Amino acid sequence: MTTRTYPVALITGDGIGPELVESALTVLDVVTEQHDITLEKTFLAGGAEAYRQSGAALSAEAVETVRISAATLKGPVGLPDVRMPDGTEAGLLGGILRNGLDLYANVRPIRLLPGVESKLRVEAGAIDYVIVRENTEGLYAARGKGVATSSAVADTLLVTRAGVERVARRAFEIARGRAGAPGDGGRRVTCIDKANVLRSMYFFRSVFLEVAADYPEIEAECLYVDAAAQALVLQPEHFDVIVTESMFGDILSDLGGGTVGGVAFCPGGNIGDHCAYFEPIHGSAPAIAGLDRANPISQILAAAMMLDHLGEQAAGDAVRQAVAAASAAGETRVDHTGAAIDGTKAVTEAIVRQLRIVRPLQ
Ligand code: IPM
Ligand code: MN
After folding, report:
1. Catalytic residue at 14?
2. Would you say residue 161 lies in a domain?
3. Which CATH number does the domain housing residue 335 bear?
4. Is 14 close to ligand 1, i.e. is its CB under 6 Å away?
């Protein structure tokens, strides 16, 4: 077999970021060797610490490196005390990377691993859906652009036809590649909106339904966001793929994380037509940074999504299988705060051990 080589960029980030990325790289070293993959790595400074030191959360050259890399793996960023003059956090890269590189689909799988006890009374397998969060417009398009006087502030929610079309299409394509919802096996895409109140949301829904007509084999349904929040708790097995506006997707992905043991189990991809980066969906938890307590699973699963994106799905599957096996064996337990009971390194080693176990081909 010949070696496949990919240039990848790495942004280790702030707080627990460096130890999470180190853990993911340990796993990547093993799995890439097993699958004859070479990752040519470029490390980039980015986040709140980078902003504090240089005045830029990510330099223009670093953005360019992300753009031309085959994919980027990013740790969590942000430090609560590093702020912009307007009060928002300075070290966040969402505006720079998601809008800057037009990474319009924020793909967030929510999956309950075997061995993780959900607060809901469900077994592993019962929660397995993907949130596709629109990533370049919606309410967060107002990022850094709100209109303010000393007594009033307004942020605008933007929905464009082209924006909804492309993200809805992405959601249907993802549904095509899946086995359907855990509850009934139905392939469906659920549009989550607030079309009963906001005109922008009615437009989002209308364009979604137009796109749905091109995918007759996949059920298209629409749900208001308040009802959806309840349904994700009461009937998570109903969901297969969800498409939604940016702020709703932000909130609902943390809600979903809360049903599968916490956001520290949840990876996400920010994917455009030409480049992409992968990250945990949570923050940088500076309070536990450097203490070997952070749960690295979100970062490791983000690395698996990156492998899929590179076209190396067998390697991605191997990582997901190793994570599930280590979790099922009780080797990746977390406490009530979400911290890794046995430590970041021990969890990483347990996953590497599982990777090294030769499994029969399936
Ligand atoms: C996320 C985060 C970011 C977002 C913040 C930190 C800007 O919460 O990726 O979910 O809201 O997009
Ligand atoms: Mn969030």
Report:
1. no
2. yes
3. 3.40.718.10
4. no
pLDDT digits (tens, 9 = 90+) for 232-268: 999 999 999 999 999 999 999 999 999 999 999 999 9
Residue with CA closest to ligand 1 atom 10: 250
**How confident is the model at residue 201, as a pLDDT?**
98
**142 and 189 part of one domain:** yes
Q: Which two tokens stand for residue 329?
A: 């064996």
Structural domain total, the chain: 2
Rounded Cα distance between 41 and 105, Å, is: 24
Q: What is the pLDDT of residue 362?
A: 52
**Average pLDDT, rounded, for the chain:** 96
Mutate to test the pocket of ligand 1, among 77, 250, 255 (most ligand atoms within 8 A of CB): 250
Give the tokens for residue 362.
């399936």
Q: For the purposes of burial, counting CB atoms within 10 Å of the CB of 117, is it exposed (0-12), middle (13-18) or buried (19 or more)?
A: exposed
pLDDT digits (tens, 9 = 90+) for 57-111: 999 999 999 999 999 999 999 999 999 888 889 999 988 999 999 999 999 999 9
192 forms beta bridges with: 223, 244
Do 146 and 183 share a domain, yes or no? yes
Closest of 229, 233, 269 to residue 130, by C-alpha? 269
Q: Examine residue 8 and state whether it is found in any structural domain, yes or no.
A: yes
Distance CA 275, CA 264 (A): 25
Domain for residue 155, yes or no?
yes
